[in-house]
Amino acid sequence: MHSFELVKPKTLADAVAALADGAQALSGGQTLLPTMKQRLADPGTLVSLTGIPELQGVCQGDAGIIIGGATPHAVVAREAAKYYPGLAALAGQIGDPAVRNRGTIGGSIANNDPSACYPAAVLGSGATIVTNTREIAADDYFLGMFETALEEGEIVTAVKFPVPQKAAYAKFVQPASRFALVGAFVAQFADGVRVAITGASNNGVFRWPEAEAALSASFTPEALKGLTLPADDMIADLHGSAEYRAHLCGVMTKRAVMAAG
Amino acid sequence: MTKTSMTVNGKAVSAETEGRTLLSAYLREGLGLTGTHIGCDTSQCGACVVHVDGKAVKSCSVFAQDVEGADVTTIEGMANADGSLGTIQQAFQDHHGLQCGFCTPGMVMSSAALLAENPTPTEAEVRHYLEGNICRCTGYHNIVKAVMAASGQAVPAE
Amino acid sequence: MDGSVRNALQNSSWMGRAMPRREDDRLLRGQGVFVDDLQAPDCVFLEVLRSPYPAGRITALDVTEASGMDGVIAIYTAADITPQADSAVNALLPGAELAAMEPLARTHVRAAGQAVAAIIATSRDRARDAAEAIWLEVEGEPAPTRARTQAHWGQTLPAFDNPVRASIAHALVAPFAMEPRAVFAMPEGTGLTVWLSTQTPQRGRDDLCAMLGLDRDQLRVIAPDVGGAFGGKASLMPEDYLTAFAALTLQRPVKWAATRSDEFLAATQGRGASSHAEMAVDATGRATGLRAEFTFPLGHWMPYSALAPVRNAGRILPGPYTIPCDVTAAAETTEGAAVNIYRGAGRPEAAMILERLMDRAAQRLGIDPMDMRRRNVTTRLAAQPDTPCSGDFPGLLDRLEQETGYRALRAAQSQRRAQGVVCGLGLALYVEPCGQGLETASLRLCEDGRFLAITGSSAQGQGRETAMAQIVAQALNLHPQQITVSHGDTALAPEGIGALASRSTAIGGAAMWRAASGLLDRAATLCAPLLGCAPADVVTSAEGVCGGGNSLGWADLAAHLGADPLVVHIRHEAAAEAWASGAILAEVVIDPETGVLTIERMTWVDDAGIVINPVLVQGQLLGGAAQGIGAATMERMVYADGQLQTGSLMDYALPRATDMPPIHLFSQPTPSPANPLGVKGVGEAGCIGIPAAILNAVMDALPQGTPDLTLPLTSEKLWRALTGSLQ
């Protein structure tokens, strides 16, 4: 990869300052390093975020749980389990154990890979993305494949998750990358059900309103019968046609409902 | 170039690094510990797994400078103090869990991390934990047997 | 099998024993030495600029800026290198057209990924920085077909009346050894020592000598620890020549190691053939004729063994059956990475189409696939070229039936299907010819009383050292620990072939047995007068020789022999080819909602002949099975518009621990008459039989009338087959 300078701030304020000059944030690095090895990214300065205590940790807040932006997936899988098992289970399925020890929630959602798992949990939970400057509702955050509402130099400092009554994630694994070919996150709240699907759409993670309405009326696999998604904007690639992905959206949503109990 | 220090296999070490120096290169070229291997460039194959502060980490996917000061264990640090093979290493030999040996250091390190977290895993848990460790030679069954044996549990028949 | 081997096995101490491997200790400690582990203080690094463009004419190639960059020592383009000969291609078929490598593209790029320039710099990163600064322009032009070869086997048969038909399209696959290719070349005298991650050190030496204009004694090739190969490291590659050339020219050590991206782009691939066949069957289920056509892709140039797959596919039919055959197979260059041997090398392609036809015929006639095979298996084997040396094919089927409870499984199938389970059973009966030709062995009593066994074969994880030590220990009544086994070094074994084609135990082991037997004879002759007995009374053991009431330790004997040591060199030419065989049953279910395939169980009866070490055999079978499962269900290299779509593990799927089904192995050997040990090969069996069984099981599960599916059997393909939406 190209050369660069690595800076390692110990506080959020230092990180924000370092990023103000157009430097690249480095969190877990499990996506950024492979990209840099391919020489597809060429930052002059990398600002490591994983040494900043304020960005770490899983704790219970007033309205749910709060996860520090630089918290590794393995930590979420372990420590969020008692609060929000569906989220913890999703984190525990990302990548593999070694990747989970480094990859972070902030890194994942800042990147917004259309096949990543976390965006489904964040959107499916109606979570709030907290940055160094503001709070962004999940519904306003994901803007398209690899696109988010984050400004240049803005850091995801935490994600606040309301905890649903029931939730589960069903992931159909792309056999090479082990990312989601289609992943469905279903969460039942008092005021209704949210369904967020990743891996399927050219626009990245999306909500499925018809499924949400049906499941809000009856949180059962049968409620989804007959509901389909059009293949039009679905990703078509080596690993699945648009039709197959559209079909799997229905199957995985149903399986998420079954897993949620 | 910067001097980057950490503890590797119990010894304080230091080597020159650039920003782009991966932990794997620090170990292999900086310290001559070539037991950690590079099998891919997309952080998927697991041949490079080491322990950083007790956690399994893909050394090809972290910068040496980013883990300055950490406590690192590599395959070279897995034998017993008297030089005999560690429990997992011995189990791999007993159960023919290696052929060419290239994936083996990563397999041993991942297995050690598993058993530290989950001392008596099921066979399915072993396979699942090794999802990030590719082997092209063995077909995995003997590796799973080795890990089950190392955990003191009955070895699956097939 | 040799009488002496028969005797030895009856008093068996070492051969046939499940011994742990001597290779393991250093590998488990991380003390293996793979080529990229080698370092030298003044070593420089070679990187390759590969064309990002598909086939076309090079209209610009400017290295000026790159040459001036920090740390760059030299940059070579085609004009700068001077190969003294074309790379060699084994002309295995009569009239074969050959297309040698261009180490660096000259006027045209023939495929994306082809090497265009070699950059030598003080570090890899600096070399890659410089590679980015090279200006390359390529104007798209289709690559002209450079080589096409066709051959025919069997007889020309008349048109069949209403035959069963099958077609198979194999995807290209990546051998994907865990260790990427690497070369470390060091100037030595007027020549070089080249450490090469290779299966064939002697061939590498010969090829490099020819291309560099060196004599054989000026170039030493050493294969240190090699991290898997599977055919992908069997033939000389452009980077091997470029690195050696750079070292020779610059007079400094030069190292090249492929990244995984390099390997996907430019390492050799395997498979990719398409086959169409028809089989005429009479009303009783006897196959009366088989006509098959294969077309093999060769990629944009031909490595040494490029024609082996097409030849193997053609010559193996009709496999374990007695059927008149009319086989045509062609191979032609294509736009893509070179296609070479890969575990199985043509045998999988032959086995699969044959086993598909058997199942189609069974289906048409309404008889069980097991019975269909029984009606057609060869029962009388004649030792002729291109026929199995030994084997009990009905016996394999019997054992398989017994171990699986096959008839009960078939009966249970209808019940399961009534409950909506999409399930299938698939059989494969296969044969595996295991190499022809020669191998060398030498055995020496060393000064310290230990033995040094040198094999011309090589090792990439097979446990070669362990097995060879067992053979020598058996022959001389030693303990294996007294024997050091060396391999992979042309200075020690100047002649040899190496490890490929499942030949190393059958041919290399036989050579070592003969060396050990020869040493035993020589020891007896030399020691008889020393001991005061007849040569026939000399007995060897771990301690030394004894006879006539006297004894002499090995070290003492060595001292006595002094400058005329006890050493035997053997150049063994296999009299005939050993043929292994096996029968496999795959049991599968398919999830109708997603098309996901689950292999519930594989049961496998294998005939690998006499087994030296059952642990090593089991390892080879399971490892081959994993690759077979990969090829059948998930592995594929894909090009679109000349660009590789599967350039990393993000897009190339291969099996992980969770993908492996239970595999029940049973050994049912028949000794091979083709070599003194009675052994057969075992390395490729998994790639030959397993995919055929899986395909048959899937087709059994899918609705009747489902057309032939291409490989791999992805979940979408199976879902479409089930929902009637195949594209």
Fold blueprint:
The complex is a heterotrimer of chains A (261), B (158) and C (727).
Chain A: E1 5-7, H1 12-19, E2 24-26, H2 32-37, E3 45-48, E4 58-61, E5 64-68, H3 73-79, H4 85-91, H5 97-102, H6 105-111, H7 118-125, E6 128-131, E7 135-137, H8 138-141, E8 142-144, E9 147-148, E10 156-161, E11 166-173, E12 180-189, E13 192-198, E14 206-207, H9 209-217, H10 242-260
Parallel strand pairs in A: 1-3, 2-3
Antiparallel strand pairs in A: 4-5, 5-10, 6-7, 6-10, 8-9, 11-12, 12-13, 13-14
Helix pairs in contact in A: 3-4
Chain B: E1 2-8, E2 11-17, H1 23-30, E3 49-52, E4 55-58, E5 71-73, H2 87-94, H3 104-117, H4 123-129, H5 141-150
Parallel strand pairs in B: 1-5
Antiparallel strand pairs in B: 1-2, 3-4, 3-5
Helix pairs in contact in B: 2-5
Chain C: H1 3-10, H2 24-28, E1 44-50, E2 56-62, H3 64-67, E3 72-76, E4 108-109, E5 115-121, H4 124-132, E6 135-140, E7 148-154, E8 164-169, E9 172-173, E10 182-188, E11 191-196, H5 201-212, E12 219-222, H6 238-250, E13 254-257, H7 260-266, E14 270-271, E15 274-281, E16 287-297, H8 308-316, E17 325-332, H9 347-365, H10 369-374, H11 393-404, H12 406-418, E18 422-433, E19 438-445, E20 451-455, H13 464-476, E21 483-487, H14 504-531, E22 539-540, E23 544-547, E24 550-553, H15 554-561, E25 567-573, E26 579-590, E27 597-607, H16 614-633, E28 639-640, E29 643-644, E30 663-667, H17 685-701, H18 715-723
Parallel strand pairs in C: 1-13, 11-12, 16-17, 20-21, 27-30
Antiparallel strand pairs in C: 1-5, 2-4, 2-6, 3-5, 7-17, 8-15, 9-14, 10-11, 10-13, 15-16, 18-26, 19-20, 19-25, 22-23, 23-24, 26-27, 28-29
Helix pairs in contact in C: 8-9, 9-17, 13-14, 16-17
